[in-house]
C-alpha cells in the first residue's frame, strides 16, 4: 500500500510539493483555499481537504492518516504548526521560514520518537546539505552562500517582486542578520554590508547587490566549532537596499498586497555556495551554483520548484528509510547522513535542477 503524505498548504511551494510526491505516494493537500485545492487536483492525482491551518484541531484531523506530513505554511504560522504536528505524533518535513528556534521542539520530537526535518528548501536547505556533507571530509575555513529570486526585467514598483511569500520577504529585511567570524557570533542589521557581485551564467550577465540577511539559521548551531567563518547574503538588483531603507525610515505602510507577483515567465533563482578550506593538506576552493528559470512545461516558477523539490528530496529520503535520525533535524544533519546528499542532488537533476560544481582560484 502506498504511503500517505499530507501537505499542509497549497500555495506557490506547497502545490509543487504535493504534485511531485503524488507521482509515487498517496498525497492529500490541506488548505483553506478551495480554489487552490481545485486547481491542484485538476492537474495532479492529489486528494484535497479544506482545512483551517490556524486551527490545531483541524490540523490534527487532516494529518491523522499520514505516514509523513509536509508543513508548507507561511513563516508566521510555522512554529506552532510544527509543534501541532509533533504533538500528533507524525514525522514531518518543514519548509516554513519561522523566526523561532526549531530546537525548542527537539525534546517533543524525541519523546514521540519522531523525525522532524526543518528548513528543507533551497536556502536554508541546499547550502546546509553541502555544509553537512563536507564538514566531516575537509577542514572548512570559509563557508558563504548568496541567494536571490528575481525578475529579469526588474518588474515591480522598485524593480522587484517577491518570488515567495511576501510577508516572509519583508521579515528578511527586518530580522537582525547573524553570521560567524572566527567562531564568534556577529549580529548586524538586515540589509547591511552591501556589495556588488557580477555573475555570468547561462548567457546572462548579472550585476547584483548582496546584503546581510539572517539566512544561516541552524548552521550557527550545528557547525559551531567546525566552520569558523560563515555568512549568508541575499541578492537583489542594485538600488533595492535604498528603496527598502526609505520605506523603513519614512514609515511608509507596507502590506503583502503591495507585492503580489503573478505566475510569469520572467523570473529566475540564483544560489551560489562557496566553500574554502583544506583536505589532506591541500587547499580547496570551490563553488556550487544553481541557476533556474520559469518552467514553461509545468507553468511553475523557479523559486517554487527549487524550494519545493529540495523539500521533496528530503521527504523521499525519510519515506524510503534512508534518513532515520530522531529529533529536530536541520538540513546539515541530513547532508551528513550517508547517501542523502547524493539522493537529493540526483532527485533535483531528474527535475532539471542542477548544482554545478566550479573550482575557484
Annotation keywords:
361 residues, Dihydrodipicolinate Reductase, domain 2, seven-stranded mixed beta sheet, seven-stranded parallel beta sheet, 12 helices, alpha/beta
Characterization of this structure:
The chain is of the alpha/beta class and 361 residues long. The protein folds into two domains: 4-118, NAD(P)-binding Rossmann-like Domain (Rossmann fold), CATH 3.40.50; 126-301 and 344-359, Dihydrodipicolinate Reductase, domain 2 (2-Layer Sandwich), CATH 3.30.360. It is built from twelve helices and 16 strands. The chain has helices at residues 14-21, 34-43, 56-63, 75-87, 106-111, 126-134, 166-174, 219-222, 240-250, 302-319, 331-336, 340-350; strands spanning 4-8, 26-31, 47-50, 68-71, 92-94, 115-117, 139-151, 177-181, 184-188, 195-201, 204-212, 229-236, 267-279, 282-293, 327-329, 356-359. The strands form three sheets. A seven-stranded parallel beta sheet has the order 3-2-1-4-5-6-15, with helices on both faces. Strands 10-11-12-7-13-14-16 form a seven-stranded mixed beta sheet, covered by helices on one side. Helix 5 links the parallel strand 5 (92-94) and strand 6 (115-117). It is globular and about 50 Å long. The chain starts with a strand and ends with a strand.
